[in-house]
Predict the 3D structure of the following.
Amino acid sequence: MLQAWQERRGDSELPRRIITISVFAVACAAIGLAAPSFLTLSNLRAIELSSSVLLVASVGATFVILMGSIDLSVGAVASFCGMLVARMAPDFGVWSIPIGCLVGLSCGMINGLAYVYLRIPSILVTLATATTLSGAVLFISDGRSLTVSDAAVIEISQGAWLHVMPNGVLISLVVYLAAVLVGARTRFGRMTLALGSDEQTAALVGVKVNTIKIQAFALSGGLAGLAGALLAARLGSATATMGGFMTLDTVTAVVVGGTAITGGFGNVRLTILGVLFTTTLSNGLNTLAVAPHLQAIIQGIVILLAVLLNTKRVSAEDVR
Amino acid sequence: MTAAREPIFRMRGGSKSFSGNSVVEGVNLEIFANEIVGIAGENGAGKSTTLKMIAGIHPPNAGEMELFGKPFKPLRYTQAVEAGISMVFQEQALIPSLAVYENVFLSLESNFTNRLAIVDRSAMIACTERHMKDLGLAHIDPRRRTSDYAFHDRQMIEIAKAFALAEYFHIDHPIILLDEPTAAIGEREVTLLFDSIRRFRARASFILITHRLSEYIELCDRIYVFKDGRNVGEFAGERISEQSLHMAMVGRVRDEEYFKERRQLDVAEAPIVLSAKGLGGDNVKNVSFDVRKGEIVGLGGLVGCGKEAVGRAVVGFEPFPAAGTVEVNGKVLPVRARGKVAIANGVGFVPKERKTEGIVPYMSVEANISLASLPLVSRLTGIISAARERSLAEKHVNALRIRCSGPTQLCQFLSGGNQQKVVLAKWLARGVQVLVLDNPTRGVDVGAKEEIYGVLRDLTDHGAAILLISDDLLELIGLANRILVMRDGEIQFERNAPANDKPTEQELVRHMV
Amino acid sequence: MSGTWSETKARRSRLRLEASVDITRQFVRRHRAIINSSGPTLLVLTMVVVFTAINPRFLSWINVFNLMRQSSILLIVATGITFVILMGAIDLSVGAIVTFVAISSAVLIRDFGFSAAAIVFAASAMGALCGVLNALLVLRLRIPSFVATLSTMTIIGGISTWISGGVNVFFRSPDLTWVASGAMIGRIPNSGILALLIFAFASFIGARSHFGRSLFAIGGGGVTARLSGIDVLRTKAIAFIASGTLCGIAGLLLVARTSTGTARMGDDLLLQAIAAVVMGGTALSGGSGGVHRTLIGVLVIAVLQNGLNIAGVHTYIQIMVTGLIVILAVTVTLDRSRLAFIK
């Protein structure tokens, strides 16, 4: 039956996926044994909530990574937009969130335009935008943290329209599902994969390479902005570096999910696995009272393991 | 038979040059409906470029084309596809991680998209499925990932794509171009491919380029022969024999002066420098030979016979056939790190792909020349002496007449012939006892070729043993003391080639095919 | 009627715009080489002129020495990362290594009473060790350098936080402070001299040593280096170790300046180092440029930051402007003919 399913999906990496999931399950069981409070409903709720923000940002990052590029400005965009939302909330109420997204989208578009037309490698472009935005966020906040007191904004994250889950989680799931749809069923989604896989062929058969690239970065920026807004709504406050963790965590989530860091392989669907893995891991480590520095170390090792498991590696003399 | 039919495609005076080098000149050809046409010729004869001109990938510099009676001037591949011409590429222009139907309609999805930007998959899948069935390819599931299918099926997918797009653009009778479709597949797949092409010819015309003469003869109605960028002949189906085809492809008057045959040494008594025994693996089966001091051994054969792999085994260029032994001056070269040990024992390698294997394009001429001899140009350990490097470079630039603006010019700006001379200079600078060359004069102009032949003779005068692997028969015959012909991974024929008794090309070709 | 007229007008102005863009592009292409090499220098000169106009103190000796002192750390780090970039790889862990060595050195001096001489040795060793880690991941486990150094950046960052225990680490070492902030020759800061010496030595190595030559050959792409007998593995390993060691020295210098080790103190250096290398004219894809070019890139950043300071620009705006100027400078100097497909 597994065979039939595999054949229908044409998914030849199923065994590896199973390994990742089983490792995950075992790790969860182990942590649960060591700290009973890990597997409680309230803790699962907490995981749900904290992963929602990361999910939104990771989904955007996935498209960029599928293309073979990288967006190192995700954290800075999130912080900036989150802070923007905090500043605007008193005046614009719940509308500050869409505005925050749009600002994120514009930042992403700047990344994309510089990448395509100025032909600056994505590492450098996104690092530069990240720096600029990290200065900008300090500027608009004056270096202080701001409280989000607007009820409507907080409702977006912590309210419960559907009664079964917090709005923040709901929104992130909607975003995720929409992204899966986009990734599987739209031209944009399939073309990001094509670009990462074989850009030359794609250009040869007439794919609008530049447009796709700009769109991918814009989307990444927009979703990073949304993530920042949701984060501010959830925490009820905004600081200049609150989104900083996202830069690395999104890459971890995408890579752990199974998408190749070099692009051309993987899809958005997988990213939720990576996000769950990452947040559960850090939540579990927190429950075990593992110190934050150790968590960072573990995270680095996790990335390495994910890459080791998931990518074809070349000979040592040819690796770059 | 072919009464007063009008051709569906015609090229007149097609010419193309790259950076001032003329690759194709004054080509005339015609394609009729339901025809399978072959274009034969050696490496560098311009066949692939001509095909790309027809497909709009390299718009011609001169000449005109007519398709279905109307002028045809594609500026891009997509325009050619819209007009009815599709190409099946050697490595397939398919994105491996996309599904089959996505590859078929790549970049045309907008025509299946609704207002929400969602693509109508079922329509694309149904269309693809229909074409697969029509072509007898029902076993290919449009939903599966393209990388799941083997090479042969992927070729079929590209052909099906051509038909699907032809229908999409309302073309009744597409022309499908195939560039070396059999280069990387085995006998069985070749048969399958040919059967399919014969079946499809009722609905399309095919233009085919392959290196295997027997395949041309088996499949094609007509064959054009290209030589040095020109169309030099046309053969109709029945009149072709492999020999005559090959003669038309390579036949030139042999010039003994050109290959400096008089400088060929008598090496009967010379000691053996390079000895290969039982080389195997990777399509190569039990190849053994020796090369003596001052001798040039030529290794020839059709593309895919395994001669390149033999060269790689000798110099240790991974991946190489690892079975068997290679000895240089009695020292056995190990399998692991063979490359380094070979170089340390005086083996040099002039590879086929100059730009990625022979030179570093972004480095200067002098830096490239000293690359294998860094200790030689250093006065203190580990520090290169600019003066020594410069004089070494100048010495070789003069000796080999390398045309460059100076030793500091970056290699990327040199012509192919001069770049090849730099590669040679690199090994001359180090001093080699064995030199292996893989198609050293490919893409090199006539004058530079002659100079390179002179260098090879100089090397033999100094006692080097040379293994020359080449597709150029005249070169092999002219230069070598002894010629080995390979076919299907084995040495089929060996012939001494002293200056007064050189073999003819026919003699060698007979054993290649 | 009026519709078509405005259409024609719009089309004409668009054509005019396209024509002028085309002329500019042709001009740039023809003078590419000159623009590339003189671009950063012109930029520096322009900035010097502008900043001096804003505040004449900019060109005072005191400030020049300040500039040397401030840029010494970046110069050392950028020099180290140039080796790695030349061979076509990247080292994202440089900032983390600087922070790590800085904090570890602070702890070693404060808690273990290391002398200045000993700490210099220890700092270099720690940096080298980080480089070894990178080399192992890339060459042994064959993980692409981007991911490998991304991971080591995280891991080493975690170790730094652990060692510091989350608090600032104060120490006292007069010898060290003198090395970092003192002045042996007149009023020229020691750190500046040290950085320049390291830079000069590294430039020499890059241009004239077998190792340097091998870096270019490997970075040039393809397998030519391997086929010509270059020991690719050893060269790559040395590059990573050199980068790590230099980061170690920079870290020591950094912490010696303030006698305090703080978390993240070196993290900003990553972007600045990469930007400096690229602005200097070394291609991110490797194989062209050189260690000696990095100096001008460092100068661009150093002059910019110092100038903005002197001009009294707010810190936050400084950060913003730096990011923007980097993009501008890189745009001008990037050799796009080599970047067929940028990633």
Observations:
- Chain C has one domain: 34-334.
